[in-house]
Design goal:
It is built from nine helices and seven strands, in the order ααβββαβααββαααβα. The protein has 273 residues and is of the alpha+beta class. Strand 1 and strand 2 form a beta hairpin.
């Protein structure tokens, strides 16, 4: 179970030992010199000690810190915007199997599937961006060239404008090949060839579903974190809080996101009731 709090390295000065600082402060206090230089150095060291203490993350405050450190790019951002997160009363217990998040809320033990949480959040975000015409894309310096079977290529070319509205600019190329000239500005956790193929497969299998819906479902699934992905406590709080703000508790395919157990359920498992 992962129940640790990580702080950004940039907040701490490298090779900084608070015990050494205290010793240095005591040395200055006992010094017979009253020079301005000594006073300045003493003040500087005390400030560094205070800064070190101030950068310690209080575990009691973690529930209020739903926003990731946007300057810390070591892990990559899961979400883009936390500005509207609501303060929802719940307690994250931790992560099990690097796949499920355990939460205590409203007197119940709740088990969340982390992939489906993120998938649902991305689905709502992409849908909103699409219908608000606010989706962005980035042009590729070198287009991605890949081969499709004749059926896939025909389907892609028939829907070029729709693909483009989601950030995928596609051009016809030689025989059964296409060129991908631009991509959406979001973190899709797979190759773009696989993503295009999955979108086309979903379109062909779900002909009664709007093509745009198929694309949004595929993009949200490919953009979501997977099982066996370690999360910090801060990330778990952020995901659960954002899910409850969205207020939808199934994935776009209809699978449940949360399994709930009461105290009575647990007591029955242990033959206490």
């Amino acid at each position: 179970m992962n129940n640790r709090i990580e702080t950004s390295k940039k907040n701490l000065e490298s090779n900084f030992n608070p015990n050494e600082v205290k010793e240095n402060v005591e040395t200055f206090n006992n010094s017979s010199s009253n020079s301005d230089f000594v006073d300045r150095q003493k003040t500087n060291i005390e400030n560094r000690a205070n800064k070190f203490e101030g950068n310690k993350l209080n575990s009691n405050e973690i529930k209020d810190k739903y926003i990731f450190d946007t300057e810390d790019t070591s892990r990559g951002k899961i979400f883009d915007d936390f500005s509207s997160l609501k303060n929802i009363d719940f307690k994250v217990i931790g992560q099990v199997f690097d796949t499920f998040i355990l939460v205590e809320r409203n007197g119940l033990l709740e088990i969340y599937d982390q992939h489906i949480i993120h998938e649902r959040i991305l689905y709502e975000k992409l849908k909103q961006e699409y219908y608000n015409h606010s989706m962005s894309k980035q042009n590729l310096l070198v287009p991605i060239r890949f081969e499709l079977d004749p059926r896939e290529k025909q389907l892609a070319l028939e829907n070029i404008e729709i693909f483009s509205s989601f950030g995928f600019d596609i051009d016809d190329f030689d025989k059964n090949e296409i060129l991908l000239r631009s991509i959406p500005t979001m973190n899709l956790r797979d190759s773009y060839e696989n993503i295009i193929r999955e979108i086309l497969d979903n379109i062909s299998k779900n002909k009664d579903v709007d093509i745009r819906e198929n694309i949004i479902v595929s993009m949200s699934c490919k953009g979501a974190i997977k099982a066996n992905h370690k999360l910090t406590l801060e990330e778990m709080y952020s995901m659960v809080a954002k899910l409850h703000e969205v207020g939808e508790y199934t994935c776009p395919h209809g699978r449940p996101i949360i399994v709930k157990m009461s105290l009575l359920d647990l007591e029955k498992l242990f033959k206490r009731k």
